[in-house]
Write a structure and sequence with these properties.
Blueprint lengths: L2 H8 L2 E7 L6 H11 L8 H7 L5 H12 L5 H17 L2 E8 L1 H5 L5 H19 L2 E9 L4 H11 L8 E5 L11 H9 L3 E6 L5 H11 L3 E4 L7 H10 L2 E4 L1 H6 L11 H6 L3 E4 L4 H4 L3 H12 L3 H13 L5 H19 L1
Parallel strand pairs: 1-2, 2-3, 3-4, 4-5, 5-6, 6-7, 7-8
Length: 339
Amino acid sequence: MTDLDRFIAGLPKAELHLHIEGSLEPELMFALAERNQVTIPFANVEEVRAAYSFSRLQDFLDIYYQGAAVLRTERDFRDLAAAYFDRAAADGVVHAEIMFDPQTHTARGISFDTVITGLLSGMAEAEAKHGLTSKLILCFLRHLDEEDAFATLKAAEPWLDRIAAVGLDSGELGNPPEKFARVFAAARALGLKLVAHAGEEGPPDYVLQALDVLGIDRLDHGNRSLEDPVLTARLARTGMTLTVCPLSNLKLCVVESMEAHPIDRMLHAGLRATVNSDDPAYFGGYIADNYHAAAAGRGLDRDDLIMLARNSFLGSFLDDEAVAGHLAALDAYVESMVA
């Protein structure tokens, strides 16, 4: 292990853009398929990994939904969450705000309560085992209609004290943020924070819609914001957090190579950029892998990595006292490494 490996692994950090269904590793997929007697279109783990070659977001989503079919019981969702948290803790994650897609499961006849009860169990286990805190973000699938999103929000009402925010994911192109203006307004009225995927494949206008129509508190991805200098300046001035996912961007051909990734441009433009793993089982790496890839591809130094970690706490939905505690721990870690 190199000095940089050790530094990144020990660097206290939050993960703000993680789809829990996207942490389903092929080994667990096969184990759950066997446990639940579900047929999947792959013969072995190697065949699954060979299928993880994507040229666009929709290619990934097609296999993502196939994999999610093995998740059936509360135990399955607990095991899924526990596996992610074990991996995240090893990468220095001390707080995670994980996204889940209830519509992916309710469409298969799995109840909302089954999904969230299992995830909450895994979250509690992670806090007891690792001291790793977490929050839930309920995401609406944007390729479905507004009515379906409202039904999902209704199903979530008994659990609102355990849900921090709502989000918007799935296929971006052709599904602009404004399509969900009313359901986001309803979520805001219920006291939930708001996030949305925008500016990954979609144009800068989708980021503007997320800001002005949805009224988001945090921007997921946001890469294409850099195409609009006025929008970039606005994001910097308002301190809007961007949850950037370097390996995801590479795997989905949002960037041609890691050497072409804009993460350093974002930092230099004053944007509160963070590094996250998105769907790590599918995109080839968890959060430390993403820090490494960004550092290697763009020549980030330790100060840049520290800034990314600091931004992750500042951009979280933790209260001020918790954020201050994490920043103090981060400063102490950096000082110890210098010493």
